[in-house]
Amino acid sequence: MMPIRRRNCSWTVGASVRRMKTWLLAGAVVLVVGSLRMTAQPQAAAQSQAAQPQATDATLRGLIEAKNIGEYMRLMAARPHHLGSPYGKENADWILARFKEWGWDARIESYDVLFPTPKERVLELLGPTPFKASLEEPAIAADPTSAQKSEQLPPFNAYSVDGDVTGPLIYVNYGRPSDYQELERRGISVKGAIVIARYGQSWRGIKPKVAAERGAIGCLIYSDPRDDGFYVDGVFPDGPMRNRDGVQRGSVMDMPTYPGDPLTPNIGATTGAKRLDIKAVTTLTKIPVLPISYGDAQPLLMALGGPVAPADWRGALPITYRIGPGTARVHLKLAFDWSLKRANNVIARLAGSTYPDEWIVRGNHHDAWVNGAQDPGSGMSAELEEARAIGELVKRGWRPKRTIVYAAWDGEEQGLLGSTEWVEDHEQELREKAAIYINTDGNGRGFLNAGGSHALEALVNGVARDIEDPETKSSVWRRMQARAITSTAPGLRAEVRARADLRIGALGSGSDYSPFLQHAGIPSLNLSFGGLDESDGIYHSIYDDYFHFTKFLDTDFAYGRALAQTVGTLVIRLAESDVLPFQFTHLADTAQTYVRELQALLKERQDEVRERNRQIEDGVFASIADRRRPLTAPAIEDMPPALNFAPLENAANALTRAADRYRKALEAARSKVTPESARAVNVRLIQSERQLTDPAGLPRRPWYRHLLYAPGYYTGYAVKTMPGVREAIEEKNYAEADTEIVRVARALEREKALLDAASADLERIR
Ligand SMILES: [Zn+2]
Q: Which of 535, 555, 580 minimizes the C-alpha distance to 678?
């Protein structure tokens, strides 16, 4: 619940916090003290506790078993199960059977989606020291599932185009726009070249996108050991990190334009759906792209000539990192099978008793790149254990007031295919009925990470206060706050200590919440534990399997249990409360924060341009230049103009007042609401997130309709808040920034009007 690296599944970047080595010891001490206290508890207190009926969510938490979670993972990760594979279908059928066994009304809903799989992959270095890349991850004797060769997809990037290209090689660091600016200052162009970028810092799909915009003809992406290999910790199988042959597979679809099946934007990929001609698809790459290991990358990097790479471009290989080009040329040839594959979503329902037309939707994907124990098994098996426990509550006589829908998505790894097609297919019904979507994906050991709609911030804080952290035995919330205190900028510490609730992050993209939140405007949450273990080292490789997970990650599934308890508690509270437990004061507070951030961003840009222009005019760049390593001076830039933020400030202030009124109205009415009066308020609340969307969508990407949260067009998974305004400022498109300010202000005004109407409903209750 803070602006800390969140682990997102398909588009994750960056390393995690170092492993905490002392926890086993500390945990053991706490356990002993805990059991002493249990035996010393006075008889009477124990009896009075037993006599009180336990809250449903507390009963549910008691039903969640870590060993079940481990068993589901072992079964689902037993064989490779990517989209369209035999074991992927077996898993969907197995999940379906479990839901039915546990009393849910379940079925499979399928879509036919474009998923290219590799037919031919060649990468070679031509010239004086020729080298042919292996492009393979070898089996490891200690790791029993790593040898399942016949069912594994080899390393590749999905939605790369076919291609056969030969050219000089240029090293482009992480392949971000800012990296190309550094190249330009050195007079190096990638036009007609193949670029080699390292994984990390931006979502992988951005790397070929930016490379193609600059005229490159091919793109290689490799895992540098500095980011997820031996520089971080020991390598697999001795340690958790990526070994010399490990490769990160992954999608390079242009997801910031639209996710889901490339052939059917905005509609479900049903059998009879009208599909785009493949030539009309805008989300495929423009150039061929291939991911490689550092074993395969090292000979290529060693063949580079040209200037030495800047210090922060250098990785951990024992070589001199150069930018290139060299005398050697690189040949890259890729061909794919472009057939449709079948995505099988499992959808399970429990009908609500009082508000059957108000839905709580919860999901995790079941498909993996290969065996996928961590991603997605660790989240999927927690979801299944929740479903079993909720089924058990129903067998004991409990009924949810609202309808609960549990989903296991297929085809997430390719670009959120299963969830996006389902949302697009059922959009009308979801817009009427879906009150919330709760997502999980890969899970790990450590701190609760929560991101999502800020109307849900108070709800998720309340739940975190009631979940016990498996290692410290304090609340999950207490541990989150401790991390926030130690990791936040000093100026924000006082707020972390004093604010009733911890702030939750905004969602960009990277997992199945995107279509719910950013396309359909359904309030969403994404939850996981993590930060203490190293799951980056096997991410999207054949080594993300049960052997690795039980050796290095959440080995006893204690955090799988904590995740199931967290989400299960959320679902029960959402299913039982009469008025939906949304709280808008935090949304208003967050909107105010975003407005201040945008104002600061503009000022920062103005200061930066003013200072740089002055330096250029004063001849500073010429004076510091090294004649042996020439850098061109930047060009004089126009000053960013003043923008009129008044509409946004006024709207945010009005929203703050309306949110406060709603909070007071709900407080006063809470004990008096009947199902009928609650229903009237809920009908409005279900539309509350929708007010923040615009059917016209974001500039140049209409699929994304949320005006507060979107994945960055040039960051790919990291969120851009108030993206229309923020990206217009970043891209120096100031006329557009002005129009977008007005559009976001109108959205806040719509939200204010809805809250005023809901407050009036509540104030009428006597
Ligand atoms: Zn995942």
A: 580
Q: Give the whole-angstrom CA distance, residue 155 versus residue 266.
A: 30
Distance 234 CA to ligand 1 centre (A): 24
Whole-angstrom distance, CA of residue 656 vs CA of residue 648: 12
Q: How far is the CA of 380 from the centre of ligand 1 (A)?
A: 9
Sign of the CA dihedral running 135, 141, 144, 150: positive
Query: Ligand 1 centre from 739 Cα, in Å?
Result: 36
Q: Residue 194 Cα, ligand 1 centroid: separation in angstroms?
A: 29
Q: Are 536 and 16 in contact (CB under 8 A)?
A: yes
Cα(365) to centroid(ligand 1), Å: 6
CA of 371 relative to ligand 1 center, distance in Å: 12
Q: Say how many Å lie between the CA of residue 758 and the centre of ligand 1.
A: 37
Q: How far apart are the CA of 653 and the centre of ligand 1, in A? A: 38
Q: Measured between alpha carbons, how far is 617 from 637 in angstroms, rounded to an integer?
A: 11
Centre of ligand 1 to C-alpha 646, Å, is 41
User: Residue 167 pairs with which residues in a beta bridge?
Assistant: 330
pLDDT band at 627 (very low <50, low <70, confident <90, very high): confident
User: In angstroms, what CA-CA distances link 229 with 135, 241, 256, 490, 530?
Assistant: 17, 5, 28, 32, 19
Nearest to 279 by CA among 193, 338, 334: 338
Please tell me the distance between residue 726's alpha carbon and the centre of ligand 1 in angstroms.
28
290 three-class SS: strand
Half-sphere exposure of 663 (CA within 13 A, CB side): 14
Ligand 1 centroid distance, CA of 368 (Å): 7
Whole-number Å distance, alpha carbon 354 to ligand 1 midpoint, is: 34
Q: What is the pLDDT of residues 538-576, one digit of tens each?
A: 999 999 999 999 999 999 999 999 999 999 999 999 999
Instruction: Give how far Cα 239 sits from Cα of 77, 235, 628, Å.
Output: 20, 4, 43
Positive or negative, the CA dihedral 111, 390, 685, 7 is negative
Would you state the torsion angle of the CA atoms of residues 460, 466, 470, 474, taken in this order, to the nearest 10 degrees?
Answer: 110
> Cβ of 196: how many Cβ atoms within 10 Å?
25
Cβ contact 56:393 at 8 Å: yes
pLDDT digits (tens, 9 = 90+) for 357-374: 999 999 999 999 999 999
pLDDT tens-digit readout, 504-540: 999 999 999 999 999 999 999 999 999 998 888 999 9
Residue 408 Cα to ligand 1 midpoint, Å, equals 12
What whole-number distance in Å separates Cα of residue 77 and Cα of residue 547? 10
Residue 534's pLDDT is 82
By the 8 A CB rule, do 387 and 104 touch? yes
The whole-number pLDDT of residue 3 equals 28
CA of 744 to the centre of ligand 1 (A): 31
Distance from the alpha carbon of residue 630 to the mean position of ligand 1, in angstroms = 45
Question: For residues 98-120, b (16+ Cβ closer than 10 Å) or e, as one string?
Answer: bbeebbbebebbbbbbbbbbbee
Residue among 356, 440, 367 nearest 110 (CA): 367
Give the DSSP per-residue string, 705-741.
Answer: -BSSEEE-TTTSSSEEESHHHHHHHHTT-HHHHHHHH
The yes-or-no verdict on residue 747 having pLDDT over 70 is yes
- The two counts, helices (H) then strands (E), for the chain are 24, 18
Cis peptide before 675 (omega within 30 of 0): no
Alpha carbon of 306 to ligand 1 centroid (Å):
39
Tokens of 506: 């905004």
Query: pTM above the 0.85 mark?
Result: yes
